[in-house]
Amino acid sequence: MSTGFSIHKMMMDRYSIAVFMMISFLVGVLNASEGDSDLHYRSCLAECEETGCVGDQCFRHCNFPSDGVLVDGPWYMKEPLYLKWKQWECESDCRYACMTDREKEREERGEEPIKYHGKWPFKRVLGIQEPASVAFSALNLAMHLHGWLSFVNLLYYNLPLNQDKKAYYEFASLCHVYAILAMNSWFWSIVFHTREVDLTESLDYSSAVALLGYSLILSILRSFNVRDEAGRVMVAAPFLAFFTTHILYLNFYNLDYGWNVKVCAIMGVAQLLVWAIWAGVTRHPSRWKLWTVVFGSGLAMLLEFYDFPPHYGVFDAHSLWHGTTVPLTFLWWSFIRDDAEIRTLDFIKKIK
């Protein structure tokens, strides 16, 4: 009896192990990109791990001498400290070279590009991983800087100031904070798309969440004309608590890209709805600018959900989304300047 039970238990253990291995394999396949499982790509990576070369192209930092003696151990442990710090290491170069060679073969056969390690096959330009996204992010940064400086010039040099030499525009300080967060977000977008590593990814996501969260708060405060500090604190506190918790979650628990996209999309849509409703009920002279920004931003967000391979290895949906926000940013700061001027002149008329 006990012998039969032992045999049955042994068979069940083997069955459980087999099922576990099968599930693990399926999970790995489902999580991997199509290019990761390509046999030619995998064999290219294996060769590069052994030799540090892909065809005639070799990477000097894959194998380096220490005191004239080649270091023992796998190639990925043979990194000089300065290369580790910069994160330009053998693994990245091997993946890029193998991906490039494989995509050339696929293109010659008329096949469409595929993803490798969750990313489309971009062409590096001057060492930049996603050149179009970097260029458009830089333009957005420049546009926010220009908009903010023109806003400051209008407030403090072209419009009347109160006795304390402060602007009459009640939302001036909120706009200053918005400008700083916006420029910070686009700066880290430039860094992240230049070189994607865990640190730059975390900084990019966190900065974007901070900007979107604050933009939502700003839309509510301006639309409902909340001017006293106590009211602003009451409105902003629960939002700040949620955004801070989300940023801490991303950085210290799980950098979940899918969850972060959902949170950012909800915040983006919410603030667009707030501005759209306010533009519909107000008689603001520059409401057409706000309508244009809201409608254009809504269309631009669709690019985040419409994924396609990069044209010429450079322009993908994400980079084009960054591109569409450049003129919208210019128009947005134009609306802020108009709002500041209109409210300031109205206030001056009232006190006279």
UniProtKB/TrEMBL annotation:
The gene is LOC107928326. This is Post-GPI attachment to proteins factor 3. The chain crosses the membrane at residues 168-191, 203-221, 233-253, 259-281, 288-306, 318-336. Belongs to the PGAP3 family. Involved in the lipid remodeling steps of GPI-anchor maturation. Its main location: membrane. One of its GO terms (biological process) is GPI anchor biosynthetic process. One of its GO terms (cellular component) is Golgi membrane.
